[in-house]
Specification:
There is one protein chain. By secondary structure, the chain is α/β, with parallel strands linked by helices. The strands form 2 sheets. The protein has a 6-stranded mixed sheet. Strands 2-1-3-10-4 form a 5-stranded mixed sheet, sandwiched between helices. Strand 6, helix 7 and strand 7 form a beta-alpha-beta unit. Helix 5 packs across helix 14. The chain is globular and about 60 Å long.
Amino acid sequence: MGRCKGQKSFVLGVGMLATAVLASQPVMAQDKKLVLRVADQFPLTHYVPRYAIKPWMEQVTKATKGMVQFEHYPAEQLGKAKDLLSLVQSGVADIVLIAPSYVSEKMPLTAVVELPGMVTGACRGNSVYWKLAREGGILAEKEYAPNGVRVLFSAVFPPYQIISAKRKLDSPKDIEGMKLRILGGAMDMTVRKLKAIGVKMATPDTLEAISRGTLDGGIFSYGVTVNYKIPAKYVTAGEAFGTAGAIFIISENRWKQFPDSVKKTMTEAGEIAGQNLCAGVDKEEAEDLEKLKQNGVTVVRWSAADKKEIDAVLASVANEWAAEMDKRGKPGSEVLKAALEARDSR
């Protein structure tokens, strides 16, 4: 956990007692620096660090005249993607970018934004997600607060497509039996509807799995496919097999230690970061599709009849997901209703 320089030797000397005292008081005075650890799974070439994380850190440091600074640990340097939530909860990291579906056992309700057909683009999708995830939103209250974290900005990626390493995708029937990397959550239900086999796996592990033949492909955006060098020979276009949501989070315990001025700065920077990120993602998705074509990847566009068939198969996923959440004692139907209202109110 980042600490003021003036406190460092004291904390090292008295250990847990000092940590307990620190947790109950503001962590910085005007003449002290606060250095925070930020961690994520993405390489620096990925659009999340470029459009959001790095600019957010720079804006906060500038606005606080250098009093708040950051140590950035990208590309799983501080921990695996699936472990980032526990790292911020334990204080190993101060702020992390996580995909909630990697920890779907702790954050199952976020899958509402990942349902097939819910998202038509990154910015439209994030306008829905942010209403649910920001302070006062239903996901903030029902999902993130119980996990002891607060969202500084959210992100939704473009509609995900089927990426095939070898098998042709001449029709939706060709998906049947494929072993596909998925996020988990709602995407698992989507893949079962398609009669394929979903394998929950973090993105950085997919390249090796496909190369070894453990997977036949995955459900990804074009940007993820390019950035992580996912082996692909065929990709669908114009479909909507769900997507991925991500949140930039800080623990509530850490948040309470900041002065109001720092909280305000971080919040304002988060609003800007979310907007810049979705605009950049939408722009680069088209560019990444062109890169795939240039690399010899075949882009598959199914017939209107095939698309109608797929849409009919996936139409029931949202209600089934909500019912499953309700059975588990989670407010799935309530969250789905809120998401649809947010989407349709734009």
